[in-house]
Amino acid sequence: MFSIQFIDHEVPYDVFLNDLVNKLVQALKDTHDDPEFISQRKAYKLFGRRNVDRWKRQGKVVCYKRPGKVEYKTADLRMLQKTTQDYFESPPLSSITSIKKTVKHTK
């Protein structure tokens, strides 16, 4: 019998596979009725305005502009919702050097 060794414990392969299948089936059931695109208003309501705006600003989600409305892919938003977010991402190096230059000029 095969097993998978993790850092803290060992799991039989068939148990691991069954757990994985159950998680995938549950994820498919949860998202089965989702439309392909949702409006910005609904995205704000389901995922939070700050989250959607942050993901958009960070380039993690793309908005699609249609006549009279803005839409997002539901699958992209669901994926980001389940992803652990790093709220303390370091700013790009170019912005740090521009801050240092500003500080030098003000002294």
Question: Would you write up a description of this structure?
Answer:
The protein has 107 residues and is of the alpha+beta class. 55% of the residues lie in helices and 17% in strands. The protein contains five helices and five strands, in the order E-E-H-E-H-H-E-E-H-H. The protein has helices at 13-31, 40-47, 49-57, 74-82, 93-106; strands spanning 3-5, 10-12, 37-39, 63-66, 69-73. The strands form two sheets. Strands 3-5-4 form a three-stranded antiparallel sheet. Strands 1-2 form a two-stranded antiparallel sheet. Helix 2 packs across helix 3. It is elongated. The chain starts with a strand and ends with a helix.
Helical proportion, percent range? 55-70%
Q: Per the principal axes of the C-alpha atoms, what is the gross shape? A: elongated
Strand order of the largest sheet: 3-5-4
| Major β-sheet profile | 3 strands, antiparallel
Structural class: alpha+beta
Q: Give the mean pLDDT.
A: 80
Write down the Rg: 21 Å
Order of helices and strands: EEHEHHEEHH
Count of alpha/pi helices: 5
Q: How many β-strand runs?
A: 5
Stretches with pLDDT under 50, minimum 5 residues: 99-103
**Head-to-tail CA distance between termini:** 70 Å
Q: Which strand-content bin applies to the residues?
A: 15-25%
Which key terms come to mind for this protein?
single chain; 107 residues; alpha+beta; three-stranded antiparallel sheet; two-stranded antiparallel ribbon; 5 strands; 55% helix; elongated
